[in-house]
Amino acid sequence: MSADCIFCKIVSGVIPANKIYEDEDFIAFHDIKPMAKIHFLIVPKLHVETLKECDASHQKLLGKMLLLVPKLAAEQGLVGFKTLINTGREGGQEVFHLHTHVFGGGTL
pTM here? Predict the structure, then answer.
C-alpha cells in the first residue's frame, strides 16, 4: 500500500467507490470519468505503479486480472468490450497504481 495513492485508499476503504467486485486480490469499480456507457476499473490490491514494473513474480496476478475482464464485463451486460492499460505518464497513466480499464456499450 502507498499512503498517497488514491487506489490504495479505495482498497482500504478510506475513499468510497461504486464497487462491482472484490476478492482477496482485486477490487473493481465504476470509473468516475467514464469514457463509455459502461466503464469500470480492475485494480489489484497489491500496489504496483505500472505494468512496466511487473516481472515473472506478477504472472499469476496479471493472469487473474485479465481473466476477470470477460467475467465482469458479462456481469455488467457487455457482449463486446475494450480493455486498456495505460503505462507511464507518456502512455496516458494518471494514477500510478496498475489497473485495467474495461469499457463498452457505446459512447456517452
Answer: 0.95
